[in-house]
Amino acid sequence: MIKPVKAAVFGTGSWGTAFGVILADAGCDVTLWARRPELADAVNSTRANPDYLPGVELPENIRATADPAEAAAGADFTVLAIPSQTARANLAAWRPLLAPDTVLVSLMKGVELGSAMRMSEVIEDVTEVGADRVAVVTGPNLAREIAARMPAAAVVACTDEAVARRLQAACHTPYFRPYTNTDVIGCELGGAVKNVIGLAVGIADGMGLGDNAKGSLITRGLAETTRLGVALGADPLTFSGLAGLGDLVATCSSPLSRNHTFGTNLGRGMTLEETIAATQQTAEGVKSCESVLDLARRHEVDMPITETVFEIVHEGKPPVVAVKELMSRSAKPERR
Question: Residue 324 — very low, low, confident or very high, per pLDDT cuts 50/70/90?
């Protein structure tokens, strides 16, 4: 009898739980780690995550625990679905608990403040595992739709293609179609920067600037993401795929997107503090706009939309002033 693949998912937010559903539907035995014991108890007793995915029935082969050692034990895949800025501290605590040959899978879409490291780099730095044991899942994956088993596609990226194929098989379901890619740099940057561009588009929507502005921000946002990716060694074709354009379009067009919603509230005139108070889950772009801009400056890459979002979010620049300044930049050829 073939032993089922075991997966541990660290993080019971909406995307961590939804990805746990995917793994379970694909035949894996899944253990969710919850920070709060009462949430783990609720998952086990009600077969639902009442805090993040209310009304979604969880498969029987998902269970939850608040004990990280119990979650990590014997896991073939250890999935990290936590806010990117907490990754280093959490990984340091969990490192002794990880199964010896587990593949570490990042669902995190961000760049670390201070170090300007991508999430796979943080994982490698803290756990001291090789890049061939670190994978990334990214793409247009709005958790609520996936939890409802609506069709979606994603990219499974790892420098070792065989590892990517193993993970692909472990999360392939009739409604979730994963593709493999070995360009981890490009896939991670697409996921991190799209959150920043999602904020920008949300701000524009909140200001009532129209669909032409939205289309322009999405397109020019993709251009600056690609510039940064190429400077870091990514394949530019990655940004025309699911990890780039696909994720960007979903984030910038859906009311289910946390970053778009956060930006919309800012564009409507809410202060940063009011917007944070109104947001129940992490909008990664709020902190990533700072770290992405830091990464761009280190590599001398011009990212005007990212810089504008940073000025609005962290320097208090009024959106109407920021938009005027962005539109009055000197004219240049499109492909520069």
Answer: very high
**Whether this model's pTM surpasses 0.90:** yes
User: For residue 1, what pLDDT band results from cuts at 50, 70 and 90?
Assistant: low
Map tokens 């029935």 to a residue.
57
HSE, side-chain direction, 13 A CA sphere, residue 62: 31
194 given a catalytic annotation: yes
Ligand-binding annotation for 139, yes or no, is yes
Domain 6-182 and domain 192-327, same fold? Reply is no
Q: Is 109 annotated as a binding residue?
A: yes
325, burial (CB in 10 Å: exposed 0-12, middle 13-18, buried 19+): middle
Is 14 a known ligand-binding residue? yes
Fold held by 6-182: Rossmann fold (3.40.50)
Task: Give residue limits of the domains in the chain.
Answer: 6-182, 192-327
DSSP 8-state secondary structure symbol assigned to residue 251: H
Residue 258 annotated as lining a ligand binding site = yes
CATH architecture for residues 192-327: Orthogonal Bundle (1.10)
DSSP symbol at 287: H
Catalytic member of 6, 194, 214, 324: 194
Distance between CA atoms of residues 330 and 239, nearest Å: 26
Paired sense of beta strands 134-138 and 152-157, if any = antiparallel
CA-closest candidate to residue 276, choices 288, 262, 287, 256: 262
